Amino acid sequence: MKWQGRRQSDNVEDRRGMSSGGKTIVGGGIIGIIILLVNIFGGENAQFITPVLEQMQGSQSSQTEAAAPLSKEDEEMGSFVKVILADNEDIWGNIFTENGMTYKNPKLVLFKGAVQTACGGASSASGPFYCPGDQKVYMDLGFFEELKTKFGAKGGDFAIAYVIAHEIGHHVQTLLGTSAKMRQAQEGKSEAQANKLSVALELQADFYAGVWAHYNEKNLDPDDIDEALSAANAVGDDAIQSKMQGHVVPDSFTHGTSEQRKYWFMKGFKTGDIKQGDTFAEIR
């Protein structure tokens, strides 16, 4: 992606060089894997589930990581993230203005190891996520190496850009009231029905990521869309379940299949029209 020399957002909080202390996940184990899979690519519901799983894990310890200077690569990645966030600010600001609304810029927090949020504490195992409580996106960039080595994604800078745009999609849903309506609609539903609504929310965030890519096409390299689709494919519920347990359970899906995630991202990319992203109508 063409990003060098372009505007960088002032809304990135880089905490990677800070010391971190308190409870962090250690050891991993099966609960640690579940935490990773529940949170992969964020989603607001994950932030309410993760603390319970972390408590179940029972392998938390209090530890403090000493502050460490950022490497040249760390600094470059921080600059890249700031450019991607700036792109999202500009594009969503324009879209909201065109539709008679005002866009409020979110913050993006880069961290290593563990972080405290308005949605509770989280570790690197949580993967990137959006917290509606403080309207911030949280990311440990080490996640993307996991995405490549453990889940078979191609990697590349646009895979990171896609994930950021997906999480910003959850911020858009918060501003539009979609997330609150979804949580209200989940009340009294069976687990399978509630999961379908969660899938719709996640697929709409993928659609919004595609809309962002549509309006940023002039800065894309030829392989960028393939990188995004590879990432979307790797984290489909069916792909993850097949890899981790050898079979799939559709009623337990919370993020959508690989094909659904790719489809909605591409629909957003091809149309650039936020009015065509009613994923809730299409999954009933």
Automatic annotation (TrEMBL):
Organism: Flavobacterium shii
Protein's UniProt keywords contain Phosphoprotein: no
Parts of the chain that traverse the membrane: 21-42
The protein's name: Neutral zinc metallopeptidase
Membrane topology listed for this record: Single-pass membrane protein
Keywords: Membrane, Transmembrane, Transmembrane helix
Keyword Glycoprotein: no
Entry's Gene Ontology cellular component terms: membrane
